[in-house]
Specification:
The chain is α/β, with parallel strands linked by helices. It has nine helices and ten strands. A six-stranded mixed beta sheet has the order 6-7-8-3-9-10, with helices on both faces. A four-stranded antiparallel beta sheet has the order 2-1-4-5, with helices on one face.
């Protein structure tokens, strides 16, 4: 579904991505790992349309999307949950969820019951403001808001960051369930090794803007990977 081919990305004169190639397929979790500052978030921003690439291609379902603006990519089924979650702190949980309606046709602007089945805590907090939720609850809200858009590609940037272990397990179960349904591709950036290994169908490890290790998740070598993600 998603093919990243030989992508270069710059911030001014500084090169953040160097000849990066990677794929994310329907019904699979593609995981990108690495230390802070090696280009992981830049890669996700490039796919989501939040930063232009200098060269290379980004193909979504066979169509070149490198020139598409972010809102067009969202309409075409790409949903991005950024690092830090970015929920609207002054809006209620329900209002946050409804912001996902912006990319949907009017007839489809409703919150599926499944959202509350996946994240039951949100149903209990619909009238609570996003800024009053815990970090783990905000992360669940951010993922739920992305799912409201009915994505075919779900992009998650470090969903375990600052989250308590019990909610990490809940999020892991949700990602696995979404993957196993085979209806979407999932592109996951993560530094928590055990979480990544449990979910990844294929993986890539980045260092200084380049992919230095890649392969099937089942063949991930812990010592080599940890050597690149340990601080």
């Amino acid at each position: 579904m998603l093919k990243i081919d030989n992508v270069d990305l710059f911030y001014g004169a500084s090169q953040a991505l160097k000849h990066v190639s990677f794929t994310a397929e329907l019904g699979q979790v593609a995981c990108v790992m690495g230390r802070n500052g090696v280009g992981k978030t830049s890669l996700l921003r490039a796919v989501a349309g939040q930063h232009p690439i200098r060269s290379g291609q980004i193909l979504w379902d066979g169509t070149e999307i490198s020139k598409q603006p972010a809102y067009e990519r969202a309409k075409n089924g790409i949903a991005y949950v950024p690092q830090g979650r970015d929920v609207f702190s002054q809006l209620t949980v329900l209002e946050n969820l409804k912001t996902g309606f912006s990319v949907l046709p009017r007839a489809e602007r409703k919150i599926p019951d499944e959202i509350y089945e996946l994240f039951p805590v949100l149903h209990k907090m619909l009238k609570r403001r996003g800024g009053d939720l815990s970090g783990g609850q905000q992360q669940q809200l951010a993922i739920a808001r992305a799912l409201v858009t009915r994505p075919k590609l779900l992009i998650l940037d470090e969903p375990t960051e600052g989250i308590q272990p019990s909610i990490i397990k809940d999020i892991q179960k949700v990602i696995a369930l979404l993957r196993d349904r085979g209806e979407m591709a999932i592109l996951l950036v993560e530094q928590y090794f055990d979480f990544a290994r449990a979910l990844a169908d294929n993986y890539a490890v980045m260092d200084r803007g380049e992919i230095v290790l890649a392969g099937a998740g089942s063949e991930m070598e812990e010592d080599k990977v940890r050597g690149y993600i340990a601080v």
